[in-house]
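Predict structure. Chain length: 393.
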Amino acid sequence: MFETLVLPPPDKILSLSVLYRNDPRPEKMDLGVGVYKDKAGDTLIMKAVREAEKRLYDSQKTKTYVGMGGDEGFNNAMLKLVFGAGADLSRMFACQTAGGSGALRTIADLLKRARPDATVWLSDPTWANHQPILTAAGLKTAIYPYFDAATGLVKFEAMLEGLRSAKPGDVVLLHGCCHNPTGANLTLEQWGPVADLLVERDLFPFVDLAYQGFGDGLEEDAASTRLLASRVPEMAIATSCSKNFSVYRDRVGAVILMGKDADSVKIAGAQALSVTRVLYSMPPDHAAAAVRIVLEDDTLQAEWKAELEEMRLRMLNLRKGFADALRQQTNSARFDFIAEHRGMFSRLGLTEAQVNRLRDEFGIYMVGDSRFNVAGLKEDRLEELAKAVVAVL
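Prediction complete.
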C-alpha cells in the first residue's frame, strides 16, 4: 500500500524550528514560528484564560459531546467580538471549529459545495497554508497583486485592477487585519472601494480574521470586516483565538457566515456543520469554554483586554525600535515601513541567500522570504540584529 508514497516537501517553518532547536549557539534568535512571545521569550497562558480554566475545572460535570457546532455561548460571544455588541445578527451564523485553520477548511469545503466552479483569489503574497487548504477542498485559485516589496506598501490600484479580472461568482480571500506575512494593511478608506468592487463584480468576500486585537485594537481591527458586512449581501469569516487568547495548542476558531436573509444563512450553516461532521465530527471544547467564560464575565474580559493591549503595544514598540535601529545602521529610511506595519509579521525584503547568511553566520532564524515574527524580537538586541541585517545586505 504505502510503497507508492514519497516524502512530501518539508514544511518550511516547522523545519526551521528543528534547525533552531538543534543550534547550540546561546545567542541564537528565533524569528520564525508565528507565536507571541514575551520579553523572556515565553508563550505564557494569559491570566484571564488561566482563571477561566480554573472555573471550568470546578464547574464542569461531564466530558460528553457538546455538538457539531460547539459551544453556543462561545459562538455568540465571537459574533459580538467581531461585529460589536449591538450588531444585527439576524443574518448571521457561527460555529466553533478546530482552530482558525479548521474554520478556513470548513468554509473552503462549503464554497466547493455552493460554487464548485468558482475561483478563489489570493493576495500576493498570502499565508503559506491558504493555497494548500483551498486546493485540498478542490477549489481553483488565482492571485491578485497586493504587496510592493520595494516600498513595503500595498499596491492598491494594482490590487483593484487585478480583482477586476475575477468573474462574477468568484471568491476573494482578504486578510481582515495584520496581513500575514507582510504586516501591510489596507487603510479603512481603501476598504470602501474594495467593498464597492466586490458588489459591482458580484464577488464573494472570504475574510481571514486571525489577529483581531494585535494591530490597532480589538474594535479597530474589526472595522474592515464590519464595513464589508454593511455593504455586501453575503460573506464568510474565519476567526481564530490562537493569538489573541494565546490558546494555540487547544485549537479554537470559528466560522461566521452572513447570508442575504435568515433563511439562506440557516441553510448555509447547516451545510457548514455537515462539513465539520466529515472533517472532525466535533470541535474540542476546553479552550472554547474558557474563552466563553472570559467574554461573558465583565471582570475577566477587562483583564483579558488589558493583557491583550499590553501585547499589542509591546509589538508596536518593538517595530519602532527595530526600524530606528535599522535607520541608524543603514543611514537610510529603507526599513521605516516596519514601524508602520501592524501585527506579528513583516518582511525585510531580503533574498533567501541573505536570510541563510543571517542563520549561518549570526544564528538569526527567519523564514526564507525574510518574514520575521515581531514578537520574537528582543528589546535589548535590536541594535545587534540591525547590524547583522546590514552585514548581509
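Summary: Residues 168 and 202 are 5 Å apart (CA to CA).
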